[in-house]
Amino acid sequence: MRIFLDTADINEIREAARWGILSGVTTNPTLMMKSRGASHEAVIKEIATIVDGPISAETVSLDTAGMVEEGRRFARWHPNVVVKVPSTPNGWAAVKQLKTEGIRTNVTLCFSANQALFAALAGAYIISPFVGRLDDISEDGMQVVRDTVEIYRQHGLETLVLAASIRHPLHIIDAAKAGADIATVPFKVLELAARHPLTDKGIENFLKDWEKFKAEQH
Ligand code: E4P
Asked: Which of 105, 108, 155, 216 has the fewest other C-beta atoms within 10 Å?
């Protein structure tokens, strides 16, 4: 399973890229709002200088023609741009059109395996089931990821399953066990998942013992 960063914050992207584990980035209007200042195009182009992998940029049109027009514009920014459209009939229609033009799509705001199936049938490159937002309303968000992986495998559908709306480190493990191709993770969750107190304690003890070892050398 690949790890994408769910952010438009350039400093977070630089840091995660430095760790050597980052394969892509997802953004959305809320994340763009938090990044402040620069234009949509400038932010996406800057991300593309840091990460050599898919970068999702989200459309805001409600109609298919508008999504397609936005998608064509985003795709001109960089070859790694993947166009995000919502899990709606208009979104799936936009996926179909953009695919004929060689433009990859990420179908977002997916909350059911039926929506995931329809996105794949339309030709989506990525489907994004939102795990945390389903958990928030007392539903098992990860079950949509499990069901989607099973359906895609059963029917030979090539759309990549991206576990989105990840809220804590266990979600990353569960997405990997469910067979998701990608998990997109907020930076604060990535940091939590990266740390272990026994790793820190182990390093501290090894360094102390190394100093003792060196002091005893002639
Ligand atoms: C993914 O592409 C979405 O932008 C994101 O995972 C949404 O997460 P949220 O529910 O934390 O806003």
From this structure: 216
